[in-house]
Amino acid sequence: SETSAAISSIIDPATLWSACGGDGALLFELIQLFQEEWPRLLGRVEAAVQSANAEQLRTAAHTARGLVAFFSKRAAKAAEVLEQMGIDGRAGNAGEPYQALSQAVEDLRAVLPTLTIEKLRAQI
Q1: Can you give 35-82 as a three-state secondary structure string?
Q2: Are the C-beta atoms of 32 and 122 separated by less than 8 Å?
Q3: Is the C or the N end of the chain the one with fewer CB within 10 Å?
Q4: pLDDT of residue 8
């Protein structure tokens, strides 16, 4: 179905399944945590990018990567690129990678509210 194709292009099903141990309640908790924490975390990353603060970018992107790694390799990779730019002191060039992270997470936030353990199992 169209939905399952969308899910599998955005979510990394095997990683998420293993993170929640195939437990629907835990999957729901992980999704809730993501939805609650993400706006604040993305705000921190965005502030670091806008102020070209490398140290803040490194720490904010690292925390962001930890949160998205369960769900999406694409989002985790984008956060990793930002984290490395922070380490390298290149926060001033981070506009494009920030957009990549932001887009990956928007896609995630579109599919996660409708994701159930049954839908996830069907993806594996």
Answers
A1: HHHHHHHHHHHHHHHHCCCHHHHHHHHHHHHHHHCCCCHHHHHHHHHH
A2: no
A3: N
A4: 85
Written as six digits, the tokens of 20 are 């929640």
Q: What local confidence, expressed as pLDDT, does residue 87 receive? A: 98
Contact 76, 69 (CB under 8 A): yes
Is 95 in contact with 21 (CB distance < 8 Å)? Answer: no
Q: Are 56 and 82 in contact (CB under 8 A)?
A: no
Residues of the chain with pLDDT under 70: 1-2
Amino acid at 80: E
CB 41 within 8 A of CB 109: no
Phi, psi of 59, deg, nearest 5: -70, -40
